[in-house]
Design brief:
By secondary structure, this protein is mainly α. It has five helices and two strands, in the order αβααβαα. The protein has a single domain, classed as Winged helix-like DNA-binding domain superfamily/Winged helix DNA-binding domain (Arc Repressor Mutant, subunit A), CATH 1.10.10.10. Helix content is 48%, strand content 4%. Helix 2 packs across helix 3. The termini are far apart.
């Protein structure tokens, strides 16, 4: 695994139960100032293999990303951790963001 990918994986793993982060913040935590898309690619390719808490990573404005095909699953997993998710997939970043 490339060092940048490993840094992203570790940043994703650092998001605690009941909290969320966004793609940009994960990239910054991994030392990648413009790496949000790399975070998306890492989540897509390694979430299952690395058992990443993929559901805790959402868009910066507090929305679950559309088109993931698992929006309802992501919302359900977040709710199971005590994160309030609105019907349209919004999370209060002021309350739940790390």
């Amino acid at each position: 695994m490339l060092p940048s990918t490993l840094a992203i994986v570790e940043a994703i793993r650092s998001v605690p139960f009941g909290k969320v982060s966004c793609y940009r913040d994960i990239a910054l935590a991994a030392g990648l100032s413009n790496g949000a898309r790399q975070v998306v690619r890492t989540l897509h390719s390694l979430s299952e293999k690395e058992k990443l808490p993929w559901h805790r990573i959402i868009r910066a404005e507090g929305r679950i990303a559309p088109g993931s095909g698992s929006r309802e699953l992501q919302a359900a997993l977040l709710r199971a951790e005590g994160v309030a998710v609105s019907k349209d997939g919004r999370v209060d970043m002021g309350k739940y963001r790390i």
